[in-house]
Amino acid sequence: MKYTQEEIYEIVRLGDLATIVSMIQDGVDVNNFMIYKKTDVLLVSIFKENLFLINHVLSLGFDCEKNKILYLHHAIRIGNLTILEVLLNHYKKNKLIITQKNIEGNSLLHIACSNYNQDNAQIIVYLYKNLHKYLNLKKNIWLIGNKNKETALHILLRRNYPLDSDIVDILVEQKSNVFKKQDNFNLDCKDIILSYANSQSWLSNENHQRLLEHIKK
């Protein structure tokens, strides 16, 4: 069956995954699902959290760089670690650009920290443990700045959201590397934490107290 470009646009716009699968089975090239209002078949699949279609589209040779869409950033925003792992493995295998930043200069870790809550804490942990491996970074990932010279750690701490124990473990482990002045604001990461020290949310949180005790040493 033949589809006009307008029909393909509309199917992608609606996020009609069943029809998209049917079209692919009919022989429509996944790279012919042209961008529509900054959306394409892979991005729709990510938003719908359809792992089957994501894997299927990638296996058919979808060009992840053609439409200049930051798929990894979007996967982090929806908070699906499995999808993020699939995409990162695909990018690594195909030597695609993982060091992508958005218009504000925010890296993958910046986005994860700006969206942080306790439901997606493991995404931050995963990125911390794996991005150095993926990117062969020489600079500590926490210390990469955006266009405002703000690091992911500054963004995470300024949210003042209860820190997950695994994230505190990372910060304790990285004490000598991350608690230094790194931005053009008049507060560094250590000062931000100390400014919270007497707040009820920090006094009553075991993980926060553990971090406070560690940076005071």
Distance between the termini: 70 Å
Given the structure, what is the number of helices?
A: 14
The chain-level structural class is mainly alpha
Residue-averaged pLDDT: 82
Flag low-confidence runs.
none
Tell me the radius of gyration: 20 Å
Percent strand? under 5%
The major pleated sheet works out as: none
Order of helices and strands: HHHHHHHHHHHHHH
Tally the beta strands: 0
State the helical fraction.
55-70%
Taken from the alpha-carbon principal axes, the silhouette is elongated
What does this 3D model show about the protein?
This protein has helices at about 5-15, 15-25, 40-45, 50-60, 70-80, 80-95, 110-115, 120-135, 150-160, 165-175, 175-180, 190-195, 200-205, 205-215. With about 220 residues, the protein is mainly α. Helix 5 runs antiparallel to helix 6. The longest helix is centred in the middle third of the chain and has 15 residues, at about 120-135. It is elongated and about 70 Å long. The termini are far apart.
What descriptors fit this protein?
single chain; mainly alpha; 14 helices
Question: Could you give a quick summary of the protein structure above?
Answer:
This protein has 14 helices and no strands. The protein has 217 residues and is mainly alpha-helical. Helix 4 runs parallel beside helix 6, helix 6 runs parallel beside helix 8 and helix 7 packs antiparallel against helix 8.
Task: Note the topology.
Blueprint (H helix, E strand, L loop, with lengths): L4 H10 L2 H9 L15 H7 L3 H9 L11 H8 L2 H13 L14 H7 L6 H15 L16 H7 L6 H9 L1 H4 L10 H7 L4 H4 L2 H11 L1
Helix pairs in contact: 3-4, 3-5, 4-6, 5-6, 6-8, 7-8, 7-9, 10-14
